[in-house]
Amino acid sequence: MKTENRQDYDLAYMLRFENVAWYQDGVVRILDRRIYPIRTEHIECYTYQEVAQAIKDMVTQSEGPYTAAAMGMALAAYQAKGKTKKEVLQIMTDAAYALSHARPTTSEQMKGIVYGALEIAKKDIEQGRTGDILIEDMFEFAYNYVNNNYKRYSIIGKYMAEKIPYNGTILTQCFAGTVVGTMLRECCKMNKNIKLYCAETRPYYQGARLTASVACDMGFDVTVISDNMPAFTMKNKKIDLFTSASDVITMDGHVVNKVGTFQIALAAKYYGIPYYVTGTPDPVHKDMSTVSIEERDPELVLESLGTKITMDGVKGYYPAFDVTPPELVTGIITDKGIYTPESINKYFE
User: How far is CA 175 from CA 33, 213, 229, in A?
Assistant: First the structure.
């Protein structure tokens, strides 16, 4: 297949396609973002079930799970080599379900990817196009999904960069992945010499390890702060803009994102600092009544990078996301432009 016009040009190491999740020769390799950049290691998955488990275990985050799921469908096709048409269809159907339901909060968005691949697989299977042909078609679907997704986020990144003043200072929350990379790439094109402050985002430290690494890798001035410092930093470091990505944006303008986003948005509102969230609304979620907030292993908040930091008997609590209401959001930056939370339902018009 042709792979020209790759949209990961000039981006940081961890945002290059092969370093997110990549299928080749019966293996999906996924950069382990739980330990990057302390160590640069890839998890090798030999079945789609292992890919689903890697997604569940937070091996990859931000845009990574979607890429991994797409590549996982190619791996499922590899697992189905030599099977009957009926068996191939069952394997691909099971894979689509397992990959899309690895994490509950984002399952609806994930379905759009894996079931798109499944529809292509069904047509191939009906025509007897299995084996290597099916694998190639699934990989091509995954590659085109990733490349087109980067292209779309390049548009979002440009809109985001335009909102940042020259020599401006921004505060980020969690890891916005491709949006951070494309935003910084556009800032370079605009000669905007910006500074970033990254909240660390425990317990996985995505802000410290991932957002900050991307910014540093791309040559930007970046500083990490702990999760209880955003309000003080806003005032004393003259933050111009707060931004985050989103895991879900409901059609009535609520933003579901990494837990901690809500309290930073509150502080931004207090100081009159605009908060721009990046992403697109999900028509499946008309409001918050249909969104399931994932609660992860509470033991993770009792440790730091694998080292226990609390006394035996202390309990933990780990909601993975929180909800920022529309009134705290300045604008939602999409690939079609910037909407207010109140007008985001017009995105699909």
Answer: 11, 10, 17
Question: Quick one: CA torsion of 192, 207, 15, 5, rounded to 10 degrees?
Answer: -40
How many other CB atoms are there within 10 angstroms of residue 241's CB atom?
Answer: 20
Residue 244 to residue 229: CA distance in whole angstroms: 16
List, run by run, the mean pLDDT of 10-residue segments along the chain (349 residues).
Answer: 78 96 98 96 98 96 93 98 96 97 87 95 96 97 95 95 97 90 96 97 95 96 98 97 96 97 98 97 95 94 95 97 98 97 96
The residue type found at 277 is: V
Q: Which residues pair with 27 in a beta bridge?
A: 24
* CA neighbor of 51 nearest in space, from 76, 86, 82, 14: 76
Amino acid 255: pLDDT: 98
Alpha helices for the chain (secondary structure H):
48-56, 64-79, 85-100, 107-126, 132-163, 178-189, 206, 212-217, 230-236, 261-271
Q: Give, in order, the Cα–Cα distances in Å from 3 to each of 7, 17, 19.
A: 10, 11, 16
Q: Does the active-site annotation cover 247?
A: yes
Measure the CA–CA gap between 209 and 207, rounded to whole angstroms: 6
How far apart CA 254 and CA 104 sit, in angstroms, is 18
Contact 21, 40 (CB under 8 A): no
Instruction: Give me the pLDDT at residue 139, please.
Output: 98
* Cα–Cα distance for residue pair 41/55, rounded to 1 Å: 16
- Catalytic position from the list 137, 240, 247, 282: 247
Q: Which letter does DSSP use for residue 242 in this model? A: E
Helix (H, G, I), strand (E, B) or coil at 277: strand
Q: Can you give the pLDDT at residue 62? A: 85
Return the pLDDT at 106.
83
pLDDT recorded at residue 5: 85
